[in-house]
Amino acid sequence: MQYNQDDIDIGERLRSIREGMKMTREEFSEKIDITDSFLGQIERGERALSVRTLRKVVRYTGASADYLLFGKGPGNETIQKINNILTLNSQTTSDFIYHIVLCSSDFCKKFDNENIE
């Protein structure tokens, strides 16, 4: 059986995004509401990515449709980095969130003080 090179490329980009999110095929397929075997077929280029599934992937991952379909534009590197940080472990996640809140609070106070003067 011969597969379409575009479908193969899309599948490879989708697999790369999923792996960057440190998710199994089963976990990822559950999040986008398709079967893991269908996801595997898409990743191998055996099946085409439907518009409905494309929308689900874009919404869930934050990747651009241009990137998934054509390899152009940004992927989801920022989202991958955030997901990697948040999935390390609960203590690291708690520390990370604590520092973000602390920095945000300090920034807001400084911003408010500068605008009052």
Q: Helices, strands, pairings?
A:
Elements: H1 5-20, H2 25-31, H3 36-43, H4 51-61, H5 65-70, H6 77-86, H7 90-116
Task: Please outline what is shown here.
By secondary structure, the chain is mainly α.
Please explain how this structure is put together:
The chain has helices at residues 5-20, 25-31, 36-43, 51-61, 65-70, 77-86, 90-116. By secondary structure, it is an all-alpha fold. The chain folds into 2 domains: 5-86, lambda repressor-like DNA-binding domains (434 Repressor (Amino-terminal Domain)); 89-117. α2 crosses α3 (36-43). The protein starts with a helix and ends with a helix.
Radius of gyration, in Å, reads: 19 Å
- Write out the CATH superfamily name of the largest domain: lambda repressor-like DNA-binding domains
**Low-pLDDT regions:** none
**Succession of helices and strands:** HHHHHHH
Q: Strand percentage, roughly?
A: under 5%
Number of strands: 0
What's the CATH C level of the largest domain? Answer: Mainly Alpha
Throw out a few tags for this protein:
434 Repressor (Amino-terminal Domain); 2 domains; mainly alpha; 117 residues
